[in-house]
Design goal:
3 domains; Methyltransferase, Cobalt-precorrin-4 Transmethylase, Domain 2; globular; single chain; Cobalt-precorrin-4 Transmethylase, domain 1; alpha/beta; five-stranded mixed β-sheet
């Protein structure tokens, strides 16, 4: 019979956040796939876990995933751990999960620490709806595309950032998103855990005198729906109804679909738009 893949969350700072179940599973499985074995050996030694490890990281994730899938199909139980937190969240673990599921292998997760969730719940921003973007792309065009999407995002936004890029990222976010409120969380669960809150402008000013240290979780307020609607209505007010319709029809929409979008933009009913077009 085939084995199983266990996704085991590990502490993001405080070792006391390791669950009893994670310790037991890591002791019982046949093999542990770790993002950095040099880092993970410290964790395993602390909990007296002697299970054999193998490396699984961004630069070998495709070939190594295929190797691990083969081992699991032969009956081996494998646990996947990341350097810190939940595997599969902004790390190469998602590729192993994808290949396991494609091969019909059972995959289960052991809940535990996750920096993006920890940052969100202490931010004070709405938690019912949120989007997670992890690290902004290094590629300029990809980064600009993501930022343009976030510009109209109404959900709470969560990002990760390294200390040496924090200042530049804050300035970039302010230039694209406007001066929104932000919660900056660093060194979560560790001795020097800190949360700062304010606007982009205030955080930029603060870090002129305070050098960023530690890994950061950025939690940003989403756009206000009513404010967006008012801005949109002001924008469309300067455009004729026919031109507004042409804008969507030139994108390939049929007349009915274009009418629906025009009505939404202007805060009108579709019937109102239809009647206005008839009169003209």
């Amino acid at each position: 019979m085939a084995g199983k893949l266990y996704l085991c969350a590990t502490p993001i700072g405080n070792l006391e956040d390791m669950t009893f179940r994670a310790v037991r599973v890591l002791k019982e499985v046949d093999l542990i796939a770790a993002e950095d074995t040099r880092n993970s050996i410290k964790l395993l030694n602390h909990f007296e876990i002697t299970t054999k490890m193998t490396s699984y990281h961004e630069y070998n994730k495709y070939d190594k995933a295929a190797y691990l899938v083969e081992k699991i199909l032969q009956g081996m139980n494998v646990a996947l751990i990341t350097d810190a937190g939940t595997p599969g969240i902004s790390d190469p673990g998602e590729e192993l999960v994808r290949q396991c599921l494609a091969a019909g292998i059972s995959v289960t997760s052991l809940p535990g620490a996750c920096a993006c969730i920890n940052g969100l719940i202490i931010s004070g921003f709405p938690t019912g709806r949120f989007c997670f973007e992890a690290f902004l792309p290094h590629d300029k065009k990809e980064r600009e595309a993501v930022l343009q999407d976030l510009k109209t995002e109404t959900r709470t936004i969560i990002l990760y950032e390294a200390p040496h890029r924090l200042k530049k990222t804050l300035e970039l976010l302010k230039s694209v998103l406007g001066d929104r409120k932000i919660s900056l969380c660093r060194e979560l669960t560790k001795k020097y855990e800190e949360r700062l809150s304010g606007t982009f402008e205030e955080m930029i000013a603060y870090h002129k005198d305070h050098e960023p240290r530690g890994e950061y979780v950025l939690v940003i307020e989403g756009r206000n729906r009513e404010e967006m609607l008012r801005e949109g209505q002001q924008e469309w007010a300067s455009m004729s109804l026919e031109d507004h319709m042409n804008l969507y029809e030139n994108q390939g929409m049929d007349r009915k679909a274009a009418m629906k979008e025009v009505a939404k933009d202007r805060g009108l009913s579709r019937r109102d738009v239809y009647q206005a077009l008839l009169k003209r």
